[in-house]
TrEMBL record:
Its EC number is 2.7.7.87. This is Threonylcarbamoyl-AMP synthase. ATP binds at R51, S136, S144, R188, Y224. One of its GO terms (molecular function) is ATP binding. L-threonine binds at T28, H60, R114, A134, S174. It is an enzyme of class 2 (transferase). It comes from Spirosoma rhododendri. One of its GO terms (biological process) is tRNA processing. Residues 6-192 form the YrdC-like domain. Its main location: cytoplasm. Required for the formation of a threonylcarbamoyl group on adenosine at position 37 (t(6)A37) in tRNAs that read codons beginning with adenine. It catalyses: L-threonine + hydrogencarbonate + ATP = L-threonylcarbamoyladenylate + diphosphate + H2O.
Amino acid sequence: MKTQIGQDVVQVGQLLAAGQVVGIPTETVYGLAGNALDPDAVLTIFRVKNRPAFDPLILHTNSIDRLHDYVTEIPPPARQLAEAFWPGPLTLLLPKHERVPDLVTSGLPMVAVRVPNHPLTLALLASLDFPLAAPSANPFGYISPTTAQHVADQLGEQVPYILDGGPATVGLESTIVGFEQGKPVVYRLGGMALDQIEAVVGPVDVRSHSTSNPKAPGMLSSHYAPRVPLTLLPMGSNPEPSLRAGALAFRQPFSGIPAAQQRILSETGNLAEAARNLFAHLRQLDALDLDLIYAETVPSQGLGTAINDRLRRAAVR
Ligand code: TXA
Ligand code: MG
């Protein structure tokens, strides 16, 4: 299939209405989108991504007002979070309306919903009379895409169109929040920092560690992994010198590793910049055909907690 990369929202809307799946930009990562109310389109998403059917999809819409079509209840803290942070890198788990196919939620009673913050995708969603189911547009288990080119490199042959909205401005998948007895619980750390969430709803539990039956299967421990083995380094330490290793460093390069095989997340130590660079840098290093990639952890505050979470998962094989 010849894939088009462009900004034609009208054409993309027509493809989606015809049951096709396409690449779409969001502020977090690029998504592989299809009509969430069309089981055939949802099946195509699972097939293209090579994703197991037990791993549910996030439903994307363009406004809180449309939520009532897809969920049966919005508890008060969910509404507060939605009003504070949508459009934005936050996904809420809410009781599913029967209109949403079971395939989208892998049979679970909750549906994950979010309003993404990207002008092209918001315009697209506003033009559609259905919501979009969209996982990250990477083959299952690999690093999430933060540019249209990343999507083309890996799924290009299988999608007719990739809507090009430039590099993702956040660079980490959305933070996923569910509610237990009305209390917010974080199931996946992500692009919306915990302290911002807590500023709105008070202290929240974080339950994003993996189990054999995870509430959020995207949190299976081996995920977001490059092909080359990745080893974590505590912040500020230096690895053994090596000509065959690469490094993903936080603020400054390591000694003993060739400069061309190193990437810096943020020279100024800015965690938002580090988050934006994380996946693109990991992809670049993975393409160098090295024996090993060292990755330095970052300060565990703000977005740093989610960055360290992704690095840890990338290190699991
Ligand atoms: O930022 C994002 O969230 C991106 C963009 C494209 O919106 N999407 C994304 O989707 O990261 P995905 O499919 O790669 O990860 C979604 C994860 C699932 O793996 C699962 O962990 C959780 O969301 N999830 C989705 N629906 C769920 C449900 N009904 N119950 C529990 N967890 C759910
Ligand atoms: Mg994903």
